[in-house]
Design brief:
The complex is a heterodimer. By secondary structure, chain A is mainly alpha-helical. Chain A has one domain. Chain A has 4 helices and no strands. The longest helix of chain A is centred in the middle third of the chain and has 22 residues. Chain A starts with a helix and ends in a 5-residue tail after the last helix. Chain B folds into 2 domains: about 90 residues, no CATH class; about 120 residues, Trna Endonuclease, Chain: A, domain 1 (3-Layer(aba) Sandwich), CATH 3.40.1350. Chains A and B meet through helix 2, helix 3 and helix 4 of A and helix 3, helix 4 and helix 9 of B.
Chain lengths: ~100, ~240
């Protein structure tokens, strides 16, 4: 049975990649950096609190599919949109409030 | 203080065509009764790359898998369908559709709290002796004793200093005329992202923030999150 930390590990990796892409939009560098830091901290907080808890395999698949969706994004502006949207999706998948 | 329909320039005429597209009304109607999770689904799909419904069903199992309740699942499927429709219209068009959907959703939610005839779209607010702002407000509530002005954004990234300034200025001008005007930003994005965006802008405590989690507050319902002043301390 997967654990919550498995989903969070995959999610933070995908989130980091989105931030790297979004950072190339110079005018939004600060926003991207802040947004990344805040959402990453929220995900890490979930792992710290419930990391060892069992996770429905469907929830892990949800995070993996969403991570794959983020990898399909090659426009840095779209990456910035997803830097906010993706963690919301992950939190829903693992049963956490936004 | 008085209200006036915005002038119909070329941009407004094109945008009006989008606002009148039935898919906008359909999306707004569905999202007006949606849960926070279902609104996140709409946001993800309309922002997303994949046009494959099966992929989204896998990403939102609590909403779209067999285990979900029938009524909720039916609504989630309808939201998925309309969101895919919008997402499939290409990057530039869907950006405009998304904005129009947030406006239409705001209008519908407000019409549950105040008489629908008091809710207006694309209105300018005029004050005696003050030069009128060029940009109209997306949605206004115009009542005998008070008014509300809303600027609607699809994402937190759309929040900018000019919008905040215009909203706050309207509030202050109304105050000078002895009228109560409540200005607010409606953002179809998580409060956390909105606060990140607002954290590096000048505080405008008179302007309220209605984020994705608290949209139902527009209708007068108690939401999971409260409607907060935009000056609320950032989380960065």
């Amino acid at each position: 049975m997967p654990e919550v930390r498995d989903a969070i590990e995959r999610a933070t990796s995908a989130l980091d990649a989105l931030a790297r892409s979004g950072e190339s939009v110079e005018d939004e560098w600060q926003y991207v950096t802040d947004l990344h830091a805040v959402w990453r901290a929220r995900l890490v907080e979930v792992a710290a609190a419930r990391g060892a808890a069992a996770l429905d395999p469907a929830a892990l698949e949800a995070v993996e599919r969403a991570s794959a969706e983020t990898r399909a994004i090659d426009d840095p502006h779209r990456a910035i949109d997803w830097l906010s949207t993706f963690p919301q999706l992950v939190l829903l998948a693992v049963g956490e409030p936004l | 203080m008085r209200f006036q329909d915005a002038a119909r320039d070329a941009r407004a005429v094109v945008y009006a065509g989008i606002q009148d597209d039935p898919v906008v009304a359909r999306a707004a109607e569905l999202l007006a009764t949606a849960s926070v999770a279902q609104r996140v689904l709409a946001r993800a799909v309309m922002n997303g790359e994949s046009g494959d419904g099966a992929a989204w069903r896998a990403m939102f199992p609590s909403l779209l898998a067999n285990g979900a309740g029938d009524a909720d699942r039916e609504l989630s499927e309808a939201i998925l369908a309309v969101s895919l429709d919008v997402a499939g219209r290409g990057e530039q068009a869907r950006s405009q559709y998304r904005g129009a959907i947030v406006e239409a959703l705001t209008e519908r939610l407000l019409a549950r709290r105040v008489p629908p005839a008091a809710v207006h779209r694309e209105r300018r607010i005029l004050f005696d002796g003050v030069r009128a702002e060029i940009h109209p407000y997306d949605v206004t509530v115009e009542l005998r004793d008070r008014a509300e002005a809303y600027d609607c954004k699809w994402g937190a990234r759309g929040i900018n200093a000019e919008v905040l300034l215009q909203l706050d200025l309207a509030r202050r001008n109304a105050e000078q005329e002895g009228v109560r005007l409540l200005p607010a930003l409606v953002v179809f994005d998580a409060r956390r992202s909105c606060r990140v965006r607002l954290a590096r802008m000048a505080p405008t405590p008179g302007v309220r923030l209605v984020a994705l989690e608290s949209l139902d507050a527009l209708a007068g319902a108690r939401a999971a999150g409260t409607v907060a002043p935009v000056a609320a301390r950032p989380e960065v």
